[in-house]
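request received
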Amino acid sequence: MKLRQVKLRQGKLRQGTAARVVAAAGLALLLITSPPARARGTELPAESEEFSSEPTEFSFDLSEFEKSPWSFHGYVQGDLSYSWLNRDAALYRLELPGANRDRYRLGGGMEIQAGLAYQQGPFTAFALGSTEGWYDGEDWSGDLLLYEGNLSLQAGPNVYFTLGKTLLRWGKGYAWNPTNFAGRDKNPSDPDLSLEGYWMGIADIVKSFPGPLRTLALTGVILPVSGSMNSAFGEKDHVNVTGKLYLLLYDTDIDFMALSGGSRSARYGVTASRNVTSSFEIHGEMALVTDSEKNVLDPEGNITMETEDAWNYLAGIRYLAPTQTTVIAEFYHNGQGYTKDEVARYFDFLSAAEDTQFNALRPGLSGYQQPNFMRNYLYLKASQKEPFGWLYVTPALFTIYNLDDRSFNLVPEITHTGRENLELRLRFNYLVGGRGTEYGEKLNAWKTDVRLRYFF
Amino acid sequence: MKRISIALTTVALLFGLAPLLYALDGEEILRRVDRNLNPESYEMYRKLINIEPDSSRKEFVLYTIKKGQDRMVALFLSPASEKGRTTLRLDDNMWLYMPSVGKPLRITSLQSIVGGVFNNSDILRLDYSKEYTVQSIEEEGDHYLLGLKARSGTVAYDSLAMLVDKKNVIPIETRCYASSGILIKTLHYSEIKDFGGGIVRPSVLETDSPLQKGYRSVMLFAEIKARKFNDEVFTLSFLPKVEELR
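response:
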């Protein structure tokens, strides 16, 4: 729920050397956050006798970790980005309407995110919120957001109730979760970002067993939607009921979930995941969305609504190679997505339509502006822990490949955690695709950003 | 005469070997090692220290609970960047719950959630006798040398060579091998301490690896107490609530 939003008009920041500024800032931060390089590159002897215990060398004062009913944590984050805009792209016109013909965009911002919890007996109160300010190349904006705020009760050894604003994240996929019926869609390029919850009531019952069925858990959720509550979830004036049955059966996680019709059409899902070996995991999800509605632009430039049952599914693996390389691969089919022809028609329309015609149709075309709005995708990510002896450095490379139009993004990134509670991330996002393709028609041709986060 | 000789030989063998066989029951020694290291169900505070080749350190503090032979949970109390992360192990299944992600993810035993030389199976170690069977036993002065073999392919190390102190029946050193025979790491136990409640065991565990030359990791044990828990504590649903147990 947005509590406050502020917009301050500022003069446009134009920087001819902005890209160099971002790169220099990243390198400077990398140097600042690096630990002293006193003996970097030298190797201590590996023989075990060289590591004999020295009791005075280490200390552990447990009194520092005495429990308090209060818990407070969070982070302060600053980021800076530089984008090279694709002025020929359809989304350039969509997101920068008018005569703006900028080639570059320099952005940045600050965010403070904090969580506060208080526990008294079986009751726990929890709130997570953030305040941020950012510059997007045009304006300065600010936001204050309550991600979650709820009260939970442990009513028994295996029964829990939660009431309030809560984020549910159902599903096993890393980049996508087609079975996340009562949560928000995550950004596949940044799947760990915080998301806003919905106001709901939750009941959890958990039971453990000996034998092949180790755990059984039942989750029931009531999610009301009105004009002032959960309006982003769907059609208002409905009380939605959703639930999930979890089984740990023969060392396999299995979920069955369902959402009753109401603000959204009824849907049913199943997920599974399992460790095949000590370094190899497989997972999958499948969802049936009944009466899925989709606005489609026809050749005459009219919007028609199509309704059909849609199957969405995902299959993926996670593998840790002996070289300490972690590989994540996922295939995602979005049955509610647009076909290649439908998307080509949409981009043709964007290129040819008058501003007034486009603006009139724009609300009905929001489906085309969702992340990964087409049918078939591949996600591949490889990350390497501390290569070449680079301490605390994890480089990674990932791509989201649109299998329908063969456009994709390619994102190398490097994360450095050399100082305690400090994390630095440098990322470059390069988009590849021709005219009429998803990534070829995005606002940015490429974007680089640096993010520094301090945890407290 | 021949019969008498056979009978005498048999009796001598029985009487001579029986105490030896009893003394060298490797499985029993391994079970005693497990119980001497910690009660079957307990809570514990640990500090993990990763020491890098340049002598810089990273420290993590964990609150850990265990029930029976196959259930374990570890909650990160420090540093702030890791606080609230919780791992669960049920047999060979492992999950990591991160508050920022908001849901448990499956992890594998050879990964490491803290970096350094300790991997997930070291941090969420079940009883040795649960994961390994004794294949050989030798006496070396004041020590037994146990040759252990993994009971299944999902156990992190294919085999272990464990040097056990005869007097206290606690491990002194454990070498961990891959199925190829390559030495993955060596664990060194030291600093025996009385934790109360009859628990007398090493308070320091160090490890190094020929595969990560120059790196070492240390685990310090500050408190180990026997405690009973409900089975449902060791489920995915409870991971966000583990702090409430402290």
